[in-house]
Design goal:
single chain, 421 residues, mainly alpha
């Protein structure tokens, strides 16, 4: 791995930090409803099925705009698309309380609008990474970026529990929405779309960065990519990872509060702690991946091993969660589950940049589109399962089966070749 010369600036780290902050805000704005919905359900007289539909509404918008946002990022630049996206979803966060008071349909519409904005955060950030992140730092940069997910969940869950208990459930939406507007203003002043446009990038740092892409953009090689067993296996891993992720994000607060009998604030803390394990696993996994690549290991093999190990471990943890005899045991298992899916994410997320940096925004957009289906299906299905069975066992067993399937598909692709583009 190339050492950074002393004279090298660190502007690339500023870019990564801003994208991580955007992801942090995305998840505070995404998970606050998971906590607030406990109080909203009681106040607004929702069934569990209605609550599931409200929680799933976000993922409809998130599903619809992934590939389109990747295309826009490639055409207009990641900075412009990401900045506008955060501004957009922050406004819908602020609109959530009045929409909820108006009707369930209005609230679902607001959540769809929120999802449309957040759909751009990953593709637009990948477009920036293709310009700003060297190969030797790729896994760590993505781990830092994705670290915004668990940190956003921790802050979102704990703060929303506090605001809901002390100031009422609407307050978290107003606070986090306002933070998004502040981020957008700072991002507009602090980041340039490419190193060539940033006068603060030193010659030494410029030498570390990816070579600028010249010429007109080549057509997206969809046929080659989607005909590759390797690419398909990593897309499948993304889908299976997100099934477990979205079930935990959306339903852990309810599990601790309604199933295990914790108070609102206790359920916020218990729901937040697993995401600390997730954050740590992401950083350890990203660092280990970069170190292995620096020692000469093939990047794709390293990513596959991490992703398969994480998904397999998550499956085992989820299978044991229904048998937890106390809140403390359930918390320990939830932490192990979240850590395992963090390890998996440290594996599969860098693959689009490994295979095709130029087209990574649209490839990750497609992968994230398909991986959003669990946010719609699994989250809404959980609400229905609870109304029918009145427990979480079937939800956790199904999530375990999906995670295990992802691990097996990755193992089956061990001999697949990187597509020639």
């Amino acid at each position: 791995m190339s050492a950074v010369p002393p004279a090298a600036s660190r502007r690339r780290h500023v870019v990564v930090a801003f994208t991580a902050a955007a992801m942090f805000l995305a998840y505070t704005d995404r998970v606050n409803l998971a906590v607030a919905a406990v109080a909203m359900r009681e106040q607004l007289h929702w069934s569990q099925s209605v609550k599931g539909l409200v929680l799933a509404g976000f993922f409809i918008g998130y599903f619809l705009f992934q590939v389109a946002s990747g295309s826009l990022a490639q055409r207009f630049g990641g900075k412009r698309v990401l900045g506008l996206a955060v501004l957009w979803w922050s406004l819908f966060t602020l609109l959530t309380p009045p929409a909820a008071r108006l009707s369930v349909a209005a609230l679902i519409a607001a959540r769809i609008g929120l999802g449309l904005g957040e759909a751009a955060v990953v593709p637009a950030s990948y477009e920036l990474f293709s310009r700003w992140v060297p190969l030797a730092e790729r896994a760590r940069a993505l781990a830092g970026f994705l670290g915004g997910i668990p940190l956003g969940q921790i802050v979102g869950l704990v703060a929303t529990a506090y605001f809901t208990a002390r100031l009422g459930w609407p307050m978290s939406f107003y606070v986090f929405g306002a933070l998004g507007l502040l981020w957008a203003a700072a991002f507009a002043r602090g980041v340039r779309n490419s190193p060539a446009a940033d006068r603060d990038v030193s010659v030494a740092e410029r030498a570390l960065l990816p070579a600028p892409v010249s010429g007109t953009a080549a057509p997206m090689p969809w046929r080659v990519l989607l005909g590759s067993p390797l690419v398909l296996s990593f897309i499948a891993a993304h889908f299976c990872h997100n099934w477990a992720l979205y079930v935990l994000v959306s339903w852990l607060p309810s599990y601790f509060h309604e199933h295990l009998g914790l108070s609102m604030q206790q359920s916020g803390w218990y729901s937040a702690l697993p995401w600390l394990a997730n954050f740590l696993a992401l950083q350890v996994g990203g660092g280990a991946a970069d170190a292995a690549v620096a020692r000469g290991a093939g990047p794709i093999g390293v990513r596959r091993a991490l992703a398969a190990t994480g998904l397999g471990a998550a499956a085992l943890c989820l299978l044991s969660l229904p048998g937890a005899g106390s809140a403390h045991i359930a918390l320990a298992i939830a932490c192990a589950t979240a850590g395992s899916i963090g390890l998996a994410a440290a594996g599969f997320t860098a693959v689009p940049l490994d295979i095709t940096p130029r087209h990574a925004p649209m490839l990750i957009g497609l992968s994230n589109t398909l991986a959003t289906i669990p946010g719609i299906v699994a989250v809404a299905l959980t609400g229905w399962q609870l109304d029918v069975t009145h427990n979480y066992a079937s939800t956790f067993v199904l999530s375990a089966a999906v995670a295990a399937a992802g691990a097996l598909l990755l193992a089956a692709s061990a001999r697949a070749r990187v597509p020639e583009l």
